[in-house]
Amino acid sequence: MPKLIINDQEHDVPDGITLIQACEFAGVEIPRFCYHERLSIAGNCRMCLVEVVACPKPVASCAMSVNDLRPGRDGAPPTVLTNSETVRKAQEGTLEFLLINHPLDCPICDQGGECDLQDQTMAYGFDAGRFQDNKRAVEDKYLGPLIKTYMTRCIHCTRCVRFMTEVAGVDELGAIGRGEDMEITTYLEHGMRSNLSGNVVDLCPVGALTSKPYAFVARPWELTKTPSIDVMDALGSSIRVDARGREVLRILPRIYEAVNEEWISDKARHVWDGLRTQRLDRPYIRRDGKLEPATWDEAFGVIAERLKALTARRSAAIAGDLAAAEEMFALKLLAEQLGSPNIDCRQDGAKLDPALGRATYLFNTTVAGIDGADAVLLVGTDPRVEAPVLNARIRRRWRQAEERLPIGLIGTEADLTYGYDYLGAGPETLAKIADGSHPFLKRLEGVERPMVIVGQAALARPDGAAVLALAAKAAMKIGAVKQDWNGFNVLHSAAGRVAGLDLGLVPGKSGRDVEAILDAAGKGHIEVSISSRRDRHGAAGAMLRHLSGSHGDAGAHRADVILPGAAYTEKDGTYVNTEGRAQMTSRAIFPPGEAREDWKILRALSAVLGQPLPFDSLQALRAQMYAACPNLALLDLVEPADSGAIEKLAAQTAKPGKERFGLTVDDYYLSNPVARASSIMAALSAMHAGGSEKATGTDG
């Protein structure tokens, strides 16, 4: 390990790191604007200058490797000073130059209170500048419905350009002109189309890029900040919910290296306006074909009256994609007490079965494990849409590979932001991989840690079970499952799916799954359906549909009884992400009106039915849930699943059909009830469809 003397103290630092990282390792803060540890080094701002003894001039610490520093003539380690007079003058001079053209409009800047330029000017600048010339003015740019621009503030740090090119994988931002005429802009000034574009607002150190939906809404010190978990996809990104009063005003990412690092998708960031529109805030009962407001007692009475007149097999329970583990556990207990075997959490019809073993439905490699993979086979998935942050991680691994990382895709062709070999469209291609006859296998010779990622488009079809078995065979064939490496992965798109499978929310003996429940309802064989957050269209017929949910979406319009539930920002709930990591959301605000948490609704309904569930508090519910499913108690941990289940699955006979794999997400921005209630998501959807960003979610 190299030795450095930093401010008169000797330190051993890791080999190959930069000088700015070495100073941080030693506990010394170095100011910076252009440097970011997850982006390439630009060396634009010169704010990180330090003094290296015996060097003729200050050194940019972000671009200098510790291995390039020479020892002193007496053999002493290189000496670095970060608090000398030379460094102080360099910092003050740099800030003086940066502020020559800055408009100094802090009182009206949305970045005020969270601005790196503001903070560093206070800490490292001085009280007056010497330049009296007119300030440079730059025309603001149109970057779409998410990003508001004040380009006169821009200091050309190029963080946004490097993020879009390197992390998002889209060359949408760049610099034109030279010197004083240099400007950051999109090509042809179109809106940014990457579903990770909102992260450039967090990266901008000077307020040149701010959040357009959040503009002039609040100051950071007015907000209550609550750590939570995103449920817009199954990745489980760590987020911070900022609220004022009873409204969520913005959502920001939290750093969590194992899952999302410090990025979140645009849907996770900007879906907050959908949390307060089209809300269900009171119970409703359908009378004479029309939904009318009712009391809780009246709504429970209608459900109880109908249920008591039926046999158990004429009722069913369905858990939705956004349901937390607590409410799914309560739903399962209620179904068991009613004696109904018709229960399912797989809204899309995915042929996943917890009886086959937990490893058959998890992302076993883990998200962080992508960094160690040296080959990837994608089956029936478009990770750029289904899990944008995970896709960025695959792209990073692809960029960092010494040789071109072998990536193969079976399914619908898509722009994944990285190069791949298109192998085929359906199960026939997967079968060739499994039997060793596909030419792509030649590219995998010598590969030690390959991984297979199976998407829901390959599993949510009648032959999904056969496709899953065939994928397991392919994983075994390419060596993806071994003692020290489990590269068989299922990529989920629903936040509540893994917890539902862990809890066993699948049909009991001779029970019906979602598709069979809807078919039976249409034929009158099932007359009561209890749905928790089900947002997809149900079947027609004489069935009594009871919906517990937060938004008045398609499912609510078809329901006969509506019981208003709490959204994910309004409750403490457990979610398990696609890799099997249990995490908790935290209540940031209270539910509107008479809405209640779903487990409380189910507990109250069970009492009206005369079969009360055996808990009266969230703590009591969780105690029973943890006893039934211990892995839910391992918060923020991933318990490796037994890879033997994959070997058994691969041994099964698999005869899938010939239909090609499609896509599981029709419209990324309108994929759930909260998103469909969001005007921001509607604007993004319209922009991607080639329409006006002023469209609404109800435009047909």
UniProtKB/TrEMBL annotation:
Q: Does the keyword NAD apply?
A: yes
- Enumerate the spans annotated as 4Fe-4S His(Cys)3-ligated-type domain: 86-125
UniProt entry keywords in alphabetical sequence:
2Fe-2S, 4Fe-4S, Iron, Iron-sulfur, Metal-binding, NAD, Quinone, Translocase
- Residue span(s) of domain 4Fe-4S Mo/W bis-MGD-type: 223-279
InterPro entries, from UniProt?
A: 2Fe-2S_ferredoxin-like_sf, 2Fe-2S_ferredoxin-type, Mopterin_OxRdtase, Mopterin_OxRdtase_4Fe-4S_dom, NADH_UbQ_OxRdtase_75kDa_su_CS, NADH_UbQ_OxRdtase_ferredoxin, NADH_UbQ_OxRdtase_Gsu, NADH_UbQ_OxRdtase_Gsu_4Fe4S-bd
Pfam families with a match to the protein in the record: Fer2_4 (PF13510), Fer4_NDSU1 (PF22151), Fer4_Nqo3 (PF22117), Molybdopterin (PF00384), NADH-G_4Fe-4S_3 (PF10588), NADH_dhqG_C (PF09326)
Role summary: NDH-1 shuttles electrons from NADH, via FMN and iron-sulfur (Fe-S) centers, to quinones in the respiratory chain. Couples the redox reaction to proton translocation (for every two electrons transferred, four hydrogen ions are translocated across the cytoplasmic membrane), and thus conserves the redox energy in a proton gradient.
Q: What is this protein called?
A: NADH-quinone oxidoreductase
What species does this protein belong to? Methyloceanibacter superfactus
Taxonomic classification, please?
Bacteria, Pseudomonadati, Pseudomonadota, Alphaproteobacteria, Hyphomicrobiales
